[in-house]
């Protein structure tokens, strides 16, 4: 698929929410590799990641009514589903263990039976995609302020923008990110 031929994310989300199976196929083509990478990183197994990837897109189809038709955060929504399916896979894996000590082995959290790094991997991917969805200059301003730890004044000077504009981009960008993350946290 050529980049110029990609359906805008909001349009694709609307088609998927309306029940268009071709929209699901396009979403799979565009984001299955991302979902698979996150699942493989969390699970450490290609076979398990394959299963989770399939489950994510089945769940996306079955839960399409919860997707807003104008939603620009379709990849984040899919990663939210992925997170839940990875947790399910890890719980199923831990149920198969014969002794409780194995469940609490190094690198496992006893409260949920999931790798301690899972949340950070998924969160990092969700944040990166959400910032990408914001576009420039808003996404760039947020990256500079929060990821590069630069002051608003420094960002304004670097981007040759008025200070008030930088502050507006930060405020509006954070509002948009909050909406994206609330949607991801609501799960499917």
From TrEMBL:
It comes from Tessaracoccus oleiagri. One of its GO terms (biological process) is DNA-templated transcription initiation. It comes from the Bacteria. The keyword DNA-binding applies. GO terms for molecular function: DNA binding; sigma factor activity. InterPro entries: RNA_pol_sigma-70-like, RNA_pol_sigma-70_dom, RNA_pol_sigma70_ECF_CS, RNA_pol_sigma70_r2, RNA_pol_sigma70_r4, RNA_pol_sigma_r2, RNA_pol_sigma_r3/r4-like, WH-like_DNA-bd_sf. Coiled coil: none annotated. This is RNA polymerase sigma factor.
């Amino acid at each position: 698929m050529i980049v110029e031929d990609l359906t805008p994310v909001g349009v694709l989300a609307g088609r998927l929410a309306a029940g268009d199976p071709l929209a699901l196929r396009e979403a799979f083509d565009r984001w299955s590799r991302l979902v698979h990478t996150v699942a493989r990183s969390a699970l450490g197994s290609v076979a398990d990641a394959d299963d989770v990837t399939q489950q994510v897109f089945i769940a996306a189809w079955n839960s399409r009514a919860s997707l807003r038709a104008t939603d620009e955060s379709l990849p984040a929504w899919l990663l939210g589903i992925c997170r839940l399916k990875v947790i399910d896979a890890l719980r199923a894996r831990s149920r198969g263990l014969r002794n409780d000590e194995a469940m609490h082995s190094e690198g496992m959290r006893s409260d949920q039976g999931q790798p301690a790094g899972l949340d950070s991997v998924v969160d990092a991917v969700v944040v990166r995609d959400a910032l990408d969805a914001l576009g420039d200059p808003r996404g760039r301003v947020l990256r500079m302020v929060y990821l590069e730890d630069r002051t608003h004044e420094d960002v304004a000077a670097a981007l040759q923008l008025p200070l008030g504009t930088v502050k507006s981009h930060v405020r509006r960008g954070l509002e948009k990110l909050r909406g994206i993350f609330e949607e991801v946290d609501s799960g499917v």
